[in-house]
Protein 1
Amino acid sequence: MLLADKVLLSKPIGRSAMAHMEAITAKLRDDEKKKFLQVTESIGTTPSNAIRMFIAAFNKRGGFPFDPSNPYGFNRETLAAMSDAIADRNLEGPFDTVADMWSSVFEGDDDA
């Protein structure tokens, strides 16, 4: 079931005038909304303020302020390692001891 939640947005207007706020409606699943409310409260902001910040960043960048295909910002090397792990490629181990594991990690590394 989708729930609607009203959010206030500010429109940029002259400095001396009070900002006119308009409502926007977003449909969310109940679990998404509950989590969003918990997270915003835990970081000391409001849902409306979090959405205003997202929209300001979206508008400033002219699109998403993050790569939607890589929302956590992992670099290429990490993404490749994750892909390898999922595909069961380029993996080493299991190891009998932690020392064996570290030996494998630093094998061929002159700085180790």
Protein 2
Amino acid sequence: MADILIVDDTVANLQLLSNLLKEEGYKVRPATSGKLALQAVQQVKPDLILLDIKMPEMDGYEVCQILKSTPEHRDIPILFISALTDADDKVKAFKTGGVDYIAKPFQVEEVKARVATHLQLKEYHDHLEEKIKDGLSEIQILNQEMIATQSEVIFTMGEICETRSHETGMHVRRVSEYSYLLAKLAGVAEAELIKQTAPMHDIGKVAIPDSILNKPGPLTNDEWGVMRSHSRLGYQMLDVSDREMFKMAALIALHHHEKWDGSGYPDGLKGEDIPIAGRIVAIADVFDALGNDRCYKKAWPLDKILELLNEDKGKAFEPRLIDLFMDNLDDFIEISVKFSEKA
């Protein structure tokens, strides 16, 4: 049953309209002033308002303007019903937000028809809005599922790459978590995206021969040249997609071995010319690599790792990021313990 609020300072008009609309099966609430009308709307939001214009203290225009200025009430259809017949009055009624204008003295059948029409339009509008909300909700769910699937693919590919070099998937998990924390500390807007894509930083190693990748001793100059190629190879593998996630993963793969002083590879970028994601993952990768066993070395003690990071501050690594890392060292160690090989 539709709820209709009738606003008129003339009691006879209120009674006439109330009786008329009650006969049509509507729930009717009368209000004899603009102030009472606004109170009634606050108590229960009506489906439609029949609103007189000429009333003491607060006229119909002001009532309409107030209602249309509040988000929760602006969708209520307001039909002005007035003895004012001047064209300017009607134009003003529509400009303030009215959807229709009924002139007094009114025709009973006209009032019935106009009220029924606008209630039907409101029902269509509400139904359409609900459908749009449902559609947007479904799109958001599908988008979240797509992002989750992309993340799983990226993480799994990172794990596969690390397995080839006799390392566990925990390395990529730790690098991901370290990178996320450091990005947040640095105020990087893409922190979540960096977290999702950091596991792919060494994906290019899938193209490196096992004899070089898992060599227990030092690499020759030629072998080192092959090993260094993994950055560009990883970029080429990932840059084939226009997806934001793969674009970021490609950027990280290419730049996570660049150094702050320009002595890194593959492009010898320097300072802030190195994308922030590459600068962040560089620190995360080195911190984790040094703290865990590799085929060519044993894990370093924490004090030795911190000493190297401080020594390379301003050389390999951005000073600001190293300061943030050191100031929040306990949080990084907590991640290391949480995602340790024995966890």
